[in-house]
Amino acid sequence: MIRRLVPTLVACLAASACVWPVPLPGEPVPTIESAVTWDAAAGTVTMEITVTDLAATTVRAYPGGLDVAGVDDTAAPFTFVFDTATFPADHRGMLVLASDGATIVGEIEAMPDVRCNGHRELCDRPYADVRNITTHNAMSSADDGWLGPNQTLDVPDQLEAGVRALMLDTYRAGDLNDFGSVEVPGVDPDTPYLCHAICALGNQPLVEGLTEIREFLDADPGAVVTLIIESYLDHDLTAAAFDASGLTPHTYVHPGGEWPTLGEMIDDGTRLVVMQDEAVDTTYPWLMNVWQHSFETPFSAATPGDFTCNHLRGSPSNELFILNHFLTEVFGSPALAAQVNTNPFLLDRARECEAFHDTAATFVTVDFFEIGDVAAAVAALNGL
Fold it and tell me: Which of these, 91, 242, 244, 256, could form a disulfide with 87 (CB 3.0-4.6 Å)?
């Protein structure tokens, strides 16, 4: 097989596929097809190559790019198994060449994003040991026009920016708010909504909001997302909304004991953890009770001096730790977030509370997550 790519072959590979020498008119054009499987738990990618219209005797793949020697397979079926740790950062395509000794066909084969929640290092880490940027009242955003919002960006943009846990509140349209008026008038009273206490301040149909999350999971097969729901719905209404949005097949059911790694959850297709503050209904085992698995610090701080590592709800013996780290004066605000979202204050407090409870701060919960050093603090806690 040709060891050095001739300039013409290099040039035509810029179009992702080419044959050298160029077939004569009427001759079949050889092609390469690949089937790629990512095993997140094992940290491997398997590629099976099929070559048509060429009796290939050698297929070569370049997992490290052209500057690194390729890997050969000299007998069909042409199969390669790669350790993803050897891939370049943000690896998205692999050069594959096939030859019969006289003709070379080359293609750039698409590769999966082999990162778990954005980092390969997290693939073999148990879910309970991964710290997550967590948005308080995630649905309440300035982008969506909510009054007194807790976030600037809407939920899809939060997820795109690296948020992996969302705190959400769910209400029934026909229920009465604190002023005695219907939460969302003019619709079927059983319609579930995302609201924060008073739906007149901002609302979104729950099915619509869950569909946005499902679309994100579909677009990012390496993402593991958690929903922590303050629910004012019965289980049937909640489950129906998950079914209608297409999210239910993604949900994870924890059988007890050790939590799986992110890689295992990705391989199993159970990339959505759903916890709410309602008793468990065995009809819907994926609707887990948050206080059976988690504990939290107090959430009513008005000044930085009010923060404490003491627990409020849930047993500190539970596996998951919600570190509430936001200030509230009736509403949250960017100015309040700026007081507490920066390092070293945020990172120091998180480390202090992790040491206090001897466990990872699974959910670092903040307002206006893009203000300050939240992403950097969570990355540091994860050792990234």
Answer: 91
